[in-house]
Specification:
- The complex is a heterodimer of chains A (226) and B (405).
- Chain A has helices at 45-52, 75-85, 101-110, 118-128, 144-156, 174-189, 201-204, and strands spanning 2-12, 18-29, 34-38, 60-65, 68-69, 86-89, 162-166, 193-198, 209-214, 217-223.
- With 226 residues, chain A is of the alpha/beta class.
- Chain A has a single domain (2-223), classed as 3-Layer(aba) Sandwich (Rossmann fold).
- In chain A, the strands form two sheets. Chain A has a six-stranded mixed β-sheet, with helices on both faces. In chain A, strands 2-1-4-5 form a four-stranded antiparallel β-sheet, covered by helices on one side.
- Chain A is globular.
- Chain B has 405 residues and is an alpha+beta fold.
- Chain B has helices spanning 3-15, 18-56, 83-92, 128-132, 144-148, 158-164, 208-215, 234-248, 264-307, 309-317, 322-358, 370-395, 399-404, and strands at 60-65, 96-112, 115-124, 136-139, 153-156, 174-177, 180-188, 203-207, 223-228, 259-263.
- A six-stranded mixed barrel of chain B has the order 2-3-8-5-7-6.
- In chain B, a hairpin with a 2-residue loop joins strand 2 (96-112) and strand 3 (115-124).
- In chain B, helix 2 runs antiparallel to helix 12 and helix 9 (264-307) runs parallel beside helix 12.
- Chain B is elongated, with a radius of gyration of 33 Å.
- The chains are: A alpha/beta (226), B alpha+beta (405).
- Chains A and B meet through helix 2 and helix 3 of A and helix 1, helix 10, helix 11 and helix 13 of B.
Chain lengths: 226, 405
């Protein structure tokens, strides 16, 4: 499903100095896997996530998503790939203020080219994360855990091939973290493919596969029995 | 991308900061208000010009004794125009249907029993009705016999009737003009205001012969009223008459004339000239307001883009293309200026209704549908022009950076 081959990413800093964030990453992720990527901060895990999520392009290397060579696509096509195949969950939720949960969840559907029943799809996604009774609440009326669940519903609404979660519990207290993580457990059980960046061992232990990175390279890749 | 949804989202974004939205609209409101006033005043003015020309007579040419630029009859010291001039014009200029040379005196006292008033005395010929296209409403004009006999008969205007009579029928009554007794034989139909703002109904028409020899004792005339056979000939007649009089009065080129010739076209030119200056001024106000309004919209949109970096990043992450982001901000700025435009048109129409009332009819204004079209076009245009830079800036953001920001 995800096939990365010798991916490198080099940034040019304002001083003209080049920073090699990724130095040849090769990785295959199969459908239904629950992968945790762990690395100290600044070691390239966010860049890797952005490349997997088609928000960023690799400097060199090949990337196939569902068999499509996405590293060669233009900006509009990448937007379309994100819209159809990727679901993002961010550390800071990124919900639109003063906008109901239902409308926040509909956001990806606005950019879809298909004619969809936006209300029904968004409602189903919210029910999936257990917020069927909070559809018309605005973010400020919801707890942190609930807000992140709305964000998860938003990432599910377009029925993506993979869920990409970047430190999804980074802004949450323990109780809310547990609440959110059990949703991911459930989604994994339902057969979703999940890639999650974290630096909490406790959270990584819930995944079926843990990849550790350092200095832009993968240093370990272990599969665990679920 | 669902356009209806985009508009709804844009409206919500505008609604989230009403004060800011109002400030963004302000320049456009002022600009479109002024534009609406210009159009309304312009329409009112051209209607007034039309009416002025109509009152003057669409195929009329008038010759006034005395030089200068002002219109209207001369004072009694101006003795430059004669009946011979009138006869020469009638003989030599082609295309004249009818002519009425007249001796006019302004502000003369007229008495009926205990009532008196000041009015214009017009000593004319039996051609009056034809040359002025002005019929008697009741009674009759004087006849050739009255002319020949220097009869003391008068046809009086509506204002004179109102000033002198309560309920009595004026016809058959006796009035005193400059202490000479006259018999009222007719009442003129209403005519309204002259191009110079004179009440044309405040006049008494008597035979020229009577005026010349019995009342004012002068051989000269004050004006010649000419009616062209065809309104297309008016300008030609105007030029021909002027040329003929120049020759008859021996006016050297470069020296001022001692007469003035005015046709319907010069009357409308004069009336339009008075409105033109005002329109130019208001046009500048409108243009400046729209430009300043556009700059304000652009700057606030730039601030808004800066504040919503996260939102832009998120939208890009869930599949918005660059052009979706660009359109979102363009629609937002255009909607704001469109709202400003609608408010501006409504305020402008209110002003347009108030202007004639406040100026007591001196400044006409006519509300119409055109401001809605112009307001729509100009406000949306300002919105798009002002929004294009912020919208492009938003669209070109790197989503990775925007999500972190």
């Amino acid at each position: 499903m995800i096939e990365l081959k010798d991916i490198t990413k080099t940034y040019r800093k304002s001083g003209g100095m080049e920073v090699k964030v990724l130095q040849g990453v090769s990785l295959k992720i199969k459908k239904g896997e629950y992968v945790a990527i762990m690395a100290p901060s600044g070691m390239g895990k966010s860049t890797l996530m952005n490349i997997i999520g088609c928000l960023d392009k690799p400097s060199t290397g090949e990337y196939r998503l569902d068999g499509i060579e996405v590293d060669k696509m233009d900006d509009d096509s990448l937007s379309s790939v994100r819209n159809k195949k990727i679901g993002f969950v961010f550390q800071s939720f990124h919900l639109l203020a003063r906008t109901t949960a239902l409308e926040n969840v509909q956001l990806p559907l606005i950019y879809s080219t298909e004619e969809l029943d936006m209300n029904a799809l968004a409602a189903t996604a919210l029910e999936e994360v257990g917020l069927g009774d909070r559809m018309h609440y605005v973010p400020s009326e919801l707890s942190g855990g609930q807000q992140q669940r709305v964000a998860i519903a938003r990432s599910l609404v377009n029925d993506p091939s993979i869920l990409l979660a970047d430190e999804p519990t980074g802004n949450l207290d323990t109780a809310s973290s547990t609440e959110v993580m059990s949703i991911f457990d459930k989604l994994h059980k339902d057969g979703r493919t999940i890639v999650m960046v974290t630096h909490s061992d406790e959270i990584a232990l819930r995944a079926s596969r843990v990849i550790r990175m350092r200095d832009g390279k993968i240093v370990s890749d272990e599969r665990r029995a679920a | 991308m669902k356009q209806a949804k985009t508009v709804k989202l844009a409206l919500r974004a505008i609604g989230m900061n009403k004060m800011r939205a109002f400030l963004m609209m302000l320049g456009v409101i002022i600009g479109i208000t002024t534009l609406t006033v210009i159009v309304s005043v312009g329409k009112g003015a051209s209607a007034k010009v039309m009416k002025t020309v109509q009152n003057f007579g669409a195929n009329a040419v008038m010759v006034f004794a005395g030089g200068g630029k002002v219109m209207g009859p001369p004072d009694e010291k101006t003795n430059t125009l004669t009946l011979e001039d009138a006869q020469a014009v009638m003989q030599e200029v082609k295309g004249i249907r009818s002519m009425d040379p007249a001796l006019i005196r302004l502000g003369r006292t007229v008495k009926y029993e205990e009532n008196n008033t000041n009015t214009v005395i017009y000593g004319g010929t039996t051609n009056y009705g034809d040359a002025w296209e002005w019929s008697a409403e009741s009674g009759d004009y004087f006849t050739e016999e009255d002319m020949a006999g220097m009869a003391r008969v008068a046809v009086i205007g509506k204002t004179v009737v109102d000033d002198l009579y309560d309920k009595t029928d004026p016809i058959g009554t006796n009035i005193k003009i400059e202490n000479v007794n006259f018999k009222v034989i007719g009442v003129l139909g209403p005519r309204g205001t002259s191009p110079m703002g004179m009440d044309m109904d405040n006049r008494i028409v008597i035979p020229y012969t009577t005026a010349s020899r019995r009342v004012f004792n002068t051989p000269y005339i004050s004006i010649i009223r000419i009616a062209a056979a065809d309104s297309n000939q008016v300008e030609k007649i105007e030029n021909d008459v002027a040329a003929l009089l120049k020759e008859r009065h021996h006016i050297q080129s470069g020296f001022p004339e001692d007469y003035r010739v005015r046709g319907a076209s010069s009357v409308s030119k004069m009336a339009k000239g008075m409105m033109g200056t005002l329109n130019l001024f208001l046009g500048l106000v409108s243009l400046i307001s729209l430009v300043v309004g556009g700059i304000v919209v652009m700057n606030i949109m730039l601030i808004s883009v800066g504040e919503r970096v996260n939102e832009i990043g998120l939208r890009r992450a869930v599949g918005a293309r660059k052009k979706d982001i660009r359109n979102q901000f363009l629609i937002e700025s255009s909607l704001i200026t469109l709202m400003g435009g609608i408010i501006g048109v409504l305020v402008g129409l209110v002003v347009a209704v108030l202007i004639p009332i406040m100026s007591k009819g001196k400044m006409p204004a006519m509300p119409s549908w055109e401001p809605f079209v112009l307001g729509f076009i100009f406000s949306v245009l300002v919105g798009i022009l002002a929004g294009i830079h912020p919208a492009k800036k938003a669209a070109e953001m790197d989503p990775v950076v925007a999500l972190k920001g």
